[in-house]
Write a structure and sequence with these properties.
Distance between the termini: 19 Å
Radius of gyration: 32 Å
CATH class of one domain: Mainly Beta
Helix content: under 10%
CATH architecture of one domain: Sandwich
Shape: globular
Length: 715
């Protein structure tokens, strides 16, 4: 009897590394074979009304037709009801050994029942010289919003308007390559009570549509909306809503900024800061500052038993520095070294009595130094990095100030200690005792593996360079099962566990990325090495969110020889993708694999710059703004009073590079660049099955994927 449908999603998660063992029926092949005949990859989940793509590859000339079915199951009146809700097939030949099968679940196929409360199975059936039939559970995922290839943007000249003011707006469409789309749009404007105030149907323009709305003498006050909709031929639509506010307000005349250090330490004598108050036209504000310091960690249970705040006052004339003695702060919060303080600066203008407030906070740390293993080169699983026996292993330690900036003075010494644990006592390394242990002559260190050996490597002392990142290279002995690295600078330390990546045959491939930080359109170079000669060509997939974008092949003709291949970075690969390389080892009937994750930055091909001819002008004077861009560019300018921006700090109606990237799912990536090298991430995993799982791939095959670690718990 199958599990109830409510458990389907949970089982789908566990089946990520065990899909080949989760068949509903133990049907297998109709003929006994000596080697594997096929492999299937697909994403761990599928979505309604979106293609569910299944990559099928046969490992020889075995099948000419493969059929895939998506079967739903539900329970009604105590009975199990199964229905095929999607089906597709592919045809194979000796010259076409693989292909992609695309299934799509539509609401119409569900006969009115709620698809969310069904369990789902993927059934595969192959026929030809041999037959196979296999099945596994798959999970369904839900999107809050549909996956779009086009995006609508709404821009207004500002976000806040008074009565009788004119609202200027612009609407345009971008495709996934951030290029404008000329398509008809329906534009509707609603007031805060959802009354439709204006409507334009089918308006269009390659660079968008501009319009305006004149507000009346007594418009409804509140949040208004501009809704833009695009209709497609299949009656699908996409829309977006831009908001602006109508209210009675007084524009602020000046701005207040509060500058504090990025972090604080209790070892210092004082906490210093600066308050800056200037009019929007740049002149200094003269007035008085009330500075209040609050404890961000003061729990409600202590509100009547501890000081509420520390406060002081001082004069200001555009800018004023202040300092608070550390003795005062420690009396206010004795545990300050692990807390943060909130600081508020309330500036009152001398002439008018108008007040404006700025707020900031400062985190206190025990020591003014931070150390960590850089999270780029190795994939961390339970603070563990994985190495392949016989291949060099590299990791990085980052030493910085608590705010992430490099140390003010380079040259600090980093002490690195490495301990290995072997499977047996046959290691060529001499057994040693732990350094600096007074009773070491009386103690024996036991390996966590029966009969194994504990190896304490000689300490290394490395100099911390100017950028704060130290490269650690290790040649790990082939019989090491696991290890531990500890890095110490002054009294701060970081540690990392090491675990071997296991295969049945001790055959491995190692994949590295040679090219640095890449953008769309670049050719990225990858390096592949194998410790044995592979029995067949290497297959490598480029994936994004579990979907195979590209499939390519390469060959390694001899052991311990590096080969390189290039992949062109496409829009679909941004902002982050994975690559998985593997081959089928017939001698051990297993897959040998490796993979990594890399970032791809969108390439803004059009360079643009703006420049005023003067930084200051008198009221009523002319000023010249120069704009420079590539030929055939269309430039749109928006100019507003700076006071408007002070009222609306978010200002999220403006078109910025960050807003476009976030809307298109291309969040700005912080370049992970150390020592002039981009640090990609190796995919984690104790074994080939675990690695496929971390690539977001479910796996079906008549080849048993070796599960060294997770099979002990899940399979």
């Amino acid at each position: 009897m199958r599990l109830e449908p409510v458990l389907a999603l949970y089982i789908a998660v566990l089946s990520g590394v065990c899909a080949q063992h989760s068949s509903r029926k133990n049907r297998g092949q109709t003929q006994d074979v000596s080697w594997g005949t096929y492999v299937v990859f697909f994403h761990t989940n599928f979505h309604l009304n979106e293609p569910f793509e299944i990559f099928f590859r046969q490992l020889g000339d075995h099948y000419n037709t493969v059929e895939a079915k998506l079967i739903s199951e539900r329970w009604e009146d105590g009975k199990e009801i199964n229905k095929t809700v999607a089906t597709a097939s592919i045809f194979l030949t000796p010259s076409k050994m693989e292909g992609t099968i695309s299934l799509k679940l539509s609401e119409a196929a569900m006969d009115g029942s709620d698809y969310r409360y069904h369990g789902y199975y993927l059934d595969l059936k192959g026929s030809g010289k041999q037959l196979f039939e296999n099945s596994t559970r798959v999970g369904i995922a839900y999107r809050d919003e549909p996956l779009l290839d086009e995006h609508i943007f709404v821009q207004t000249d500002k976000r806040m308007y008074k009565t009788r003011q004119k609202v200027l707006y612009r609407v345009f469409v971008l495709d996934k390559e951030m290029k404008p789309v000329d398509s008809p749009l329906d534009i509707e404007i609603f007031d805060d009570k959802n009354n439709k105030i204006k409507e334009d149907i089918g308006v269009r323009g390659l660079f968008g549509v501009s319009g305006e709305l004149q507000l009346s003498d007594a418009p409804s006050l509140g949040a208004w909306g501009i809704k833009a909709t695009k209709k497609y031929e299949d009656n699908e639509t996409i829309s977006t809503m831009g908001k602006f506010f109508v209210s009675e307000y007084v524009l602020p005349k000046y701005d207040v900024q509060l500058k504090l250090p990025d972090y604080g330490t209790v070892d210092g004598r004082e906490l210093k800061g600066t308050v800056i108050a200037k009019y929007t036209y740049g002149k200094p504000v003269k007035g008085r500052v009330v500075l209040t310091v609050k404890n961000n960690n003061n729990y409600w249970k202590q509100e009547h038993f501890a000081p509420k705040a520390v406060q002081t006052q001082f004069e200001i004339n555009g800018e004023a520095e202040f300092s608070i003695p550390m003795d005062t702060l420690l009396k206010f919060d004795p545990d300050l070294k692990q807390h943060s303080l909130g600081v508020e600066a309330n500036v009152t203008e001398e002439e008018t009595g108008e007040s404006r407030v700025a707020f900031s906070q400062v985190n206190f740390v025990k020591e003014p130094i931070s150390i960590s293993f850089a999270d780029g080169r190795t994939y961390f699983h339970e603070n563990t990095a994985f190495f392949r026996p016989g291949f060099p292993f590299t990791t990085y330690v980052k030493v910085s100030l608590p705010d992430g900036r490099p140390l003010a003075v380079s040259g600090e010494r980093l002490r690195v200690t490495v301990t290995y644990f072997t499977y047996n006592a046959s290691s060529s390394y001499r057994r040693t005792v732990a350094p600096k242990t007074p009773t070491s002559q009386l103690m024996t260190f036991l390996s966590p593996y029966p009969g194994g050996q504990v190896i304490f490597m000689p300490e290394q002392f490395l100099t911390v360079p100017g950028n704060g990142v130290v490269k650690i290279n290790l040649n790990i002995p082939s019989d090491v099962a696991s290890g531990h690295i500890e890095a110490l600078v002054k009294t701060k330390k970081a540690s990392l566990n090491l675990s071997t990546f296991k295969t049945k045959s001790d055959a491995y491939i190692n994949l590295e990325m040679k090219t640095g930080y890449v953008k769309v359109g670049d050719q990225a170079e990858f390096i592949l090495t194998s410790n044995v000669r592979p029995s067949e060509k290497i297959t490598y997939h480029i994936l994004k969110q579990g979907k195979i974008l590209e499939t390519h092949y390469t060959n390694i003709y001899s052991a311990n020889t590096q080969i390189s291949f290039f992949v062109k970075m496409t829009v679909d690969m941004a902002p982050r993708s994975k690559i998985v390389a593997y081959y089928y080892n017939r001698d051990s009937d297993e897959f040998i694999n490796d993979g990594l994750e890399f970032a791809v930055e969108m390439n803004f091909k059009n360079d643009m710059s703006l420049r005023f001819d003067r930084s200051q002008v008198a009221p009523g004077s002319n000023v010249t703004l120069s704009a420079r861009a590539d030929p055939n560019s269309q430039i749109f300018l928006c100019a507003v009073d700076k006071s408007v921006l002070l009222m609306d700090q978010e200002n999220n109606n403006q078109i910025t590079q960050r807003r476009i990237q976030e809307e298109l799912g291309l969040h700005q990536l912080k370049p992970n660049i150390y020592n002039n090298a981009y640090l990609y991430s190796k995919l984690g995993g104790y074994d080939p099955g675990d690695l496929f799982y971390h690539a977001d791939l479910l796996f079906m095959s008549d080849v048993r994927v070796y599960n060294f670690h997770l099979s002990l718990h899940f399979c």
